[in-house]
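U., I forgot to send this yesterday:
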Amino acid sequence: MATFTVTSEYDPFLHVRLSQGESITCESNAMVMMENNLELVGEMNGGLLNAVVRSFANDESFFQQRITASHGAGDCLLAPITPGGIEILEVGATQYYISDGAFMACSSTVDMELKTQSLGAAIFGNTGGFVIARTRGEGQVAVNGFGTIFTIEVSPDSPMTIDNGHVVAWDSRLHYEPGVSTRRGGGMLGSLLNSFTGGEGVVLKFSGSGKVVLCSRNKGGFINWLKSFINSN
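Result:
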């Protein structure tokens, strides 16, 4: 099985070692360098319909890349589009949901299936609309977060509320639902209106047992700040 390694803590590469005949799937334009024994082809992973849904609903490329060790073992380096950390998830006994745009690469033995989710999570959770990517199979998945990566453990005695813009991936066994800050009362609609008019962010509330991968920077917030900075000059 292909071996994934993160090269450093800050602005890392994802180093992948493939044996003869092995392959990986990665996001379009992720490949930085590969040895001559490897071959790269573009493909619509999962077929045309999945490619369309993945592109529009999950902020991923329409075409992905498959790198195969066709002529012998070889190494390659991958890099994310946005600056930030990389986390390698071991998939098998544990499966993960992946936030919009966080997928980077996976073993050939891992698939990314599309799952439907509730109306509330679809509209307010920033988790991929009415469909969300979930891992399936056994192997490794590399995800990228904007800024520094940090992992927390949720337990029945310690549920967590996390700003949705900082969530990268989470254990599929966890229960999650959207909410706003910690304000109580007024119902969901009132809370949402308070959130949008008062500057509070939409959050995801996790409960159960499992891991959540976070990133230190909110990509959406950064883009909005950048737009306002450009428009003011």
